[in-house]
Amino acid sequence: MKILIKNGHVVDPANKIDDTRDILIDNEKVSQVAKAIDIKADKVIDAKDKIVMPGLIDMHVHLREPGREDEETVFSGTKAALKGGITSALAMPNTNPIIDSAEHVKLLKTIIDKTSQANVYIAGAITIGELGKELTDLNALKKDEVIAITDDGSSVDDEQIMLAALKNAKKNNLLVICHCEDKTLSNNGVANAGYISTILGLRGISKEAEFKRIERDIELAAKADAPIHITHVSCQESVEIIAKAKKKGIKVTADVTPHHFALDEEALVTYDTNLKMNPPLRTKQDVKALKEALKNGTIDCIASDHAPHSKPEKEVEFDSASFGTTGLETSLAVAITELIQTKILNWSQLVEKMSHAPAEILGIDRGTLSVGKDADIVIIDPNKEWLVKEEDFLSQSHNSAFLGKKLKGVVEYTILNGKIVYTRK
Amino acid sequence: MSENKAAWIKKDLLGLYELSPNEITLILDTADSFKEISTREIKKVPALRGKTVVNLFYEPSTRTRVSFEVAAKRLSADVINIAAQESSVKKGETIIDTGTNIQALKADIIVIRHNSSGAAALLARHIDISVVNAGDGWHEHPTQALLDIFTLREKLGKIKGLNVVIVGDISHSRVARSNIWGLTKLGAKVTVCAPQILIPVDIEKTGARVCHDIDEALKSADAVNVLRMQFERDLKNAFPNQHEYFKKFGITKERLEKAKKGIVVMHPGPLNRGIEISSEVADGANSVILEQVTNGIAVRMAVLFLVSQGKEKP
To answer: Which residue of chain A is at minimal alpha-carbon distance from B181?
Structure first.
């Protein structure tokens, strides 16, 4: 099957392309990328005025299956991903059961093989049950193709165990992804500790809870000489610590979520629980620092932390509501609206943050439009404005922090493995 | 009634943060005109006749609940009291479901007290009938602040330019927050006084001044609002015991002697005599504590009356 994409603005930072090009897809692979391709194809897509980029890679996604199929499944989640231009996702392990053993990995793998609509990679847990007490058998997990480990949702409190995990992960060539939070400091808080939490009467989560743990984890990673990835960085102090570590040559990478660089704590005044996240939305100053960090490379990539929640878990008192927002279907548009429109990033940098860098960090052979590679390609209309509405979501859950917001940028086509798997209606 | 009557449009009273100075003044003026009713032989006006007011209290309360009940009955409304712990809330029924069910009974106003900040707003968003916040977590207790301000206005003739000190566990106090908004919007200067650990972060950004020394704070104060040290709430007590608190922050006759003559002493009740306030002061000439209770009726009558006229949803 040959697909020809003509006249698009092709952005492929891995190959230093940011220009008008035609792309020929043949038999699932990228066959040619050139100024003008004149070959007969089964399908021709006119991509004039559109941006053509490698499929996005989201390295922090909660697909909720197995265990919470009421909130999301691998099927519904990957369908939502494709709509958002995301062709590969890293599934977080805090499902039920937790992906902390070869048996559980196999269980998830079977579900993925049977129902997934996109590429789904598996992250295993660092500790059994994510309880922070006993290390998982990394050797066994690695054999079953886990590509990273994380206790996301929690942090490993015990330094010795975390150090052992890092050493073991290094041995097994597995990336350790850290959700950095010292729960004794975050203290059951529900919003950023500051003016807004004070006037709303909400228990605050101090920034210390995050940056002190980041400091610790980076130190341990340096000790173990193991690469470490800090996920959902939310504040200025954390950015500064990561920047310092990178300067020292420590192998640390980091991601930020779209909601953290688009929204700040002031959005909470209506007690809208869709804005309740962990880490929480911070101050305008932090938002500025996160955007700057994306620009200067301190933060390597963007990951959604797609956290679907059922209505009963969100339509309750703020204190009791679950943490998290969905993100697969809004990530790209939020990034375009907040980073491209504002000229903080150019297209090459954006694609780097949302496709190429995640691929490099995870060590997967994707995120490029290199000839001979799997044709995972997204074609977007960068100028189309749209209103975020509940009824348009493909995700099973509709708890989006961006409901009612106007965003710019829509996916027109998503191509996976050389096949068109999503077309905008 | 004053000309401003047409200016109240909201269906709910959720807090003082979102009210304009004019709206607050309107409530106080309306309360003025209702105050007289409680001095009559027959303490009733038909303003809310045929209307149903439901007191939905998730936290124990006698004072506030009875006050709302008396206020509603003096307006001729029918009153239903739901103590949530004795209702199907125990079976796990959500706030929204409870609210929509009460709405389905064709009640007109729900007065809600809940231990979670934002509970009143959650309820108000999901139902069309009026919601009055009788205290939500640490967030706001608007009618308490309104009656505090009403009492001050009555005693001192104005609010603008007054120096008001609020002393106690500010960090967990909805009374403090509502008072800060109401007082600053009407032009008073507010000082919050407590040990550092009981002062919430960034409270100065509201316009309130922070002070850790009660004697210092009282020096130029026209009024002091003494908060109850709330032992049934989750506390980070800065003091080894209550007597230490009394020594450092308790409002005593000796302390008042160094303050302005005629300083007004307020307390939302119930009193912890000998902990935040001495019996002498509570029962003494500076205290307006019982007047606050009387004024609470007029203020709540005004609030119930006004929201029953309002249509604007949050």
So the answer is: A199
